[in-house]
Amino acid sequence: MELITFPYGSHWDDSGEGGLFVMLVVVKPEEWQDNCSVDVGIALPRPDVAVSAVHRELWGPYDYETSGFKKACEAKEIFDREQRKDLARWAMQSRSTEDDSVDLLMAMHIGSTPCSLHSEVTGGYFDAGYDDLTVAGRGLYDMVKAAYGIEPTLLTFLDT
Description:
Elements: E1 12-14, E2 20-27, E3 49-50, H1 55-59, H2 68-81, H3 85-93, E4 104-113, E5 117-119, E6 124-125, H4 135-148, E7 153-158
Antiparallel strand pairs: 1-5, 2-4, 2-7, 3-7, 5-6
């Protein structure tokens, strides 16, 4: 079932960068009270490119000097010097939670396309909004909003 309608044609062109991926998320408010905590949470890793401007609320500014990626590169260098190729590979495949988003109550993939839809008319990439959802997608969005009592957020990511 399709939850989102991507705007193929008209003034949208495929920039050839790999595609777009859309998620529906609910950000966990600071005052949210969990009745039970079992050290399980929902967060998203920092994407290469987030089209949605709202991503700044989820990740904040990127600082390479304090990033998990820089630490992985430093660990790889140490393992390379020690001729531990297995650990060097592990260092680059492991993921630091330091670059994760703020806590979320819910995160769901709602659609993707292999096209990187870019428009000279809008001056940017397609950024999914409520009006781009199908009837089923709007139903899901409205159900999530009613269930949590919080306005969900649509996030569009560019695969580079």
